[in-house]
Amino acid sequence: xxxxxxxxxxxxxxxxxxxxxxxxxxxxxxxxxxxxxxxxxxxxxxxxxxxxxxxxxxxxxxxxxxxxxxxxxxxxxxxxxxxxxxxxxxxxxxxxxxxxxxxxxxxxxxxxxxxxxxxxxxxxxxxxxxxxxxxxxxxxxxxxxxxxxxxxxxxxxxxxxxxxxxxxxxxxxxxxxxxxxxxxxxxxxxxxxxxxxx
Length: 198
Known about the structure:
Elements: H1 5-23, E1 28-33, E2 36-42, H2 48-59, E3 66-72, E4 76-83, E5 116-119, E6 132-135, E7 154-160, H3 162-169, E8 173-176, E9 179-183, E10 188-196
Antiparallel strand pairs: 1-2, 1-10, 2-7, 3-4, 3-10, 4-6, 5-6, 5-7, 8-9
């Protein structure tokens, strides 16, 4: 009986480690772009509604074929809302349909630092839908309560592929219709898929 106890204890310990590892595993997504691949780790423990919203768009294939339509090298790169038809210069062209906006989760302790991903929104706090941006520099002015008393909800970070982010941030930009900071040559998001975690 005594000889079996260490074995049982080891099995329980191994099981606990497995369960702990599974619980600690965060979702990861692969963003394949025309300028390289980016892997982002998401943090549902910090921004549960935001992560679930983003993953639902991923599962729906919403991001496939969209573009980075706003690139400001010393600020951020933004995408996920338009297809190449955006380049026709008419505001509604290329704009993808979205689900209802989600509540803002900007008070979660995550910061708009270099390589971290956040949801884009309008002036209304609870207006984020599908568009996201990746910070190319530290942007403390976007952390709650800046810049308007609300902040921007960070929900993940780039863990691989910053070279692709930096390649995108360096592209030449101009105007397309009423829009500024648009890459002169389209930078496409070919696909976004879940590659790891829960």
